[in-house]
Design goal:
Layout lengths: L3 E6 L3 H4 L2 H12 L3 E6 L2 H10 L6 E2 L2 E2 L3 H25 L4 E4 L7 E5 L2 H4 L2 E7 L1 H9 L3 E4 L2 E3 L5 E4 L1 H11 L4 E5 L6 E2 L2 E2 L2 E3 H9 L7 H13 L4 E5 L7 E4 L6
Parallel strand pairs: 1-2, 1-11, 2-8, 5-8, 7-10, 11-15, 14-16
Antiparallel strand pairs: 3-4, 6-7, 9-10, 12-13, 15-16
Helix pairs in contact: 3-4, 7-9
């Protein structure tokens, strides 16, 4: 499907839902683009875990997911974050459909490293038929980053990876990874563009690390899978750091 723009909302999701955000989404739709949203919820999950006295354990940007943590993650993503986002969109006049792994098993996944990370998963397959059906009718799918194994076990999946896999499967023109920073930083300067080769160099020199690492690695996978460009930014109307396969010369 052409002219698809996938948006991953991160950080504090409610902070992304500004008037400017919705104006940009509306403009893209008027120009014939189909919009897909993938939302995270790490801030809200950590907040709820702290309230309940459950330890928060993050390793290499991924949340170690015990059985208890998984239940809290499901509760927060499906019961709190997704309804908040869908309500905001509906109030702005958009037609949206909230989706999670139990909706026709939209995301099939497998354990990433069950011994060390628990129920953390990686995406194996996305039900693009369901997404394309919704997009053709001008609905905006809003997807929670949860998956199911082939045997029906729930998985907590990094939202960046879900967004990148969705963008790849839909052959999206653009993918926006919204985060709490304006892009990728090198020597106190925000970078406008990055190629895959430059990313490899920055990883070797430890410039890209921590929570930015899985975000960048997912972006590279999406580019190699056919997504034309990925933007890491904190505002939808600002390009941020644009990632593409190779440098483009005028």
């Amino acid at each position: 499907m052409k002219k698809v723009i996938v948006i991953k909302m991160g950080g504090v999701a409610s902070d992304n839902l500004t008037k400017t955000f919705f104006i940009q989404v509306e403009q893209w739709q008027k120009n014939g683009n189909k919009i897909v949203i993938v939302h995270g919820g790490g801030h809200y999950i950590s907040e709820m875990m702290q309230r309940l006295g459950v330890p928060v354990n993050i390793q290499n940007g991924l949340r170690v997911t015990t059985e208890e943590t998984l239940k809290i993650t499901q509760m927060v993503l499906i019961g709190q974050v997704q309804p908040m986002i869908t309500t905001h969109f509906q109030q702005e006049g958009f037609s949206v459909v909230g989706l999670n792994a139990s909706c026709g098993q939209i995301i099939t996944g497998s354990y990433l490293n069950q011994k060390n990370l628990g129920a953390v998963g990686e995406v194996e397959q996305v039900d693009t038929e369901l997404l394309e059906h919704l997009l053709e009718r001008d609905h905006i799918p809003i997807i929670a980053p949860l998956g199911l194994t082939k045997t029906g076990d729930w998985l907590n999946i990094n939202a960046d990876q879900v967004a990148c896999k969705v963008a790849e499967e839909l052959q999206a023109e653009k993918l926006y990874l919204l985060t709490d920073v304006p892009g990728v930083k090198k020597e106190n300067q925000w970078l406008d563009e990055l190629t895959i080769k430059e990313i490899n160099d920055l990883k070797k020199t430890n410039v890209i690390k921590g929570g930015m690492l899985p975000k960048i690695e997912s972006a590279v996978t999406a580019i190699r899978g056919g997504v034309k460009e990925v933007h890491i930014t904190n505002q939808l109307h600002v390009s941020g750091t644009k990632i593409q396969e190779t440098e483009v010369y005028a």
